[in-house]
């Protein structure tokens, strides 16, 4: 599941009027902290080769710093103020490199015994914040805090996750496998607007382009193919004919192969009814296996759902699989409870009781083809999201909830509880959303909220917690 590391342009700054020695010392202290905290998540690109201090303070270095960060293709900038800092140069660098920007400085020491102050870090960040705003540079701010504080360490990790969401969103390439089902007008998307507003590209292919690969995959019978067939036969589908399981695994591999051909990082497939007529199976189990590999493949050709899945998965640093769900029915006894359900694309790794998980036939569709899945997923705290838009307006629905007990139902499912379900329901119905959402274990609403700051034309639309609480998570 793990993705590539976030490449951080580390560009600490100082101002000539204050202690250069202290600024250099703090440059090193901060670097040690973020290396330890970031660990496997980040790759740090510093400016030690630009000047002997490794600090931004001389206008003659700015061009070289910008050139280096652009050549290194950094995903984010960290501009810690090691003393007051040089706000105009900080802004020049940030303005030239359109990536998420972290502004922070270590809390100042007490004045010396003679009354002199040697850093004035906090004061400098007031200045830098103003100049960044004047130049329309979005930035994330962490409160002036002690360098060893958990607040700084946790805030740095939050920023890394935010940068990952922005990176994944900007690099979204969605394989659209066939058209939407005729009756599903709710999943209509505007391909032109996705390109114009966000640089997101779709790659439409026919079902035949994907399914034509299946026979070759089965006949090749690679070791990986045999392992996956055996895993399903042993753990999920002991009563299904091996030939049916082979088609399910082959479909999963064919989707990945086609996605690789177009360099796509997510897919949306028309899962019924043409697919059943062509190869005689449902794609649910294939989608489930793909989810566990960190490759979202969503149902009913819901392109915006695939984009949502990429964003939410990125907020978890690609370490957790996401699940694509219908918002289905209210809990029969809990007025704030709701059923998240679908035919079978939820990751098997999340199954509450893997021993009872199984694949079978759809319980509603007339085709009665094999390939749906039936398991409840494990309890826990969840983040729910939906990227969508209409009339040239786009927003990101974000909410957090927890699982609760509820009655058994067919398919994949989990019952959730919110603090105010009618509020969620109204927001979802009044739009621009639909009945499809993406869920992931863990609370990351503040990450998605902050990421919208760096995505022009995308408005955050939190329902629970609200805006004030999400901002408070970034505040000491």
Mind telling me the CATH class of the largest domain? Alpha Beta
The structure class reads alpha/beta
Would you identify the CATH H-level superfamily of the largest domain? L-fucose Isomerase, Chain A, domain 2
According to CATH, what is the topology of the largest domain? Answer: L-fucose Isomerase, Chain A, domain 2
Provide the helix percentage.
25-40%
The total beta strand count reads 18
What is the strand content?
15-25%
Summarize the structure.
By secondary structure, the chain is an alpha/beta fold. The chain has two domains: 6-170, Rossmann fold (3-Layer(aba) Sandwich), CATH 3.40.50.10940; 173-472, L-fucose Isomerase, Chain A, domain 2, CATH 3.40.275.
Walk me through the topology:
Elements: E1 6-10, H1 20-38, E2 42-45, H2 62-71, E3 76-78, H3 87-96, E4 101-103, H4 121-134, E5 140-141, H5 150-170, E6 173-177, H6 191-198, E7 201-205, H7 207-211, H8 214-220, H9 223-235, H10 242-261, E8 266-269, H11 274-279, H12 284-292, E9 297-298, H13 303-315, E10 323-330, E11 337-342, E12 358-361, E13 370-376, E14 381-390, E15 393-404, E16 412-417, H14 421-430, E17 436-441, H15 445-451, E18 458-464, H16 467-472
Parallel strand pairs: 1-2, 1-3, 3-4, 4-5, 6-7, 6-8, 8-9, 13-16, 15-18
Antiparallel strand pairs: 10-11, 10-17, 11-16, 12-13, 14-15, 14-17, 15-16
Helix pairs in contact: 1-5, 2-3, 3-4, 5-13, 5-15, 8-10, 9-10, 10-12
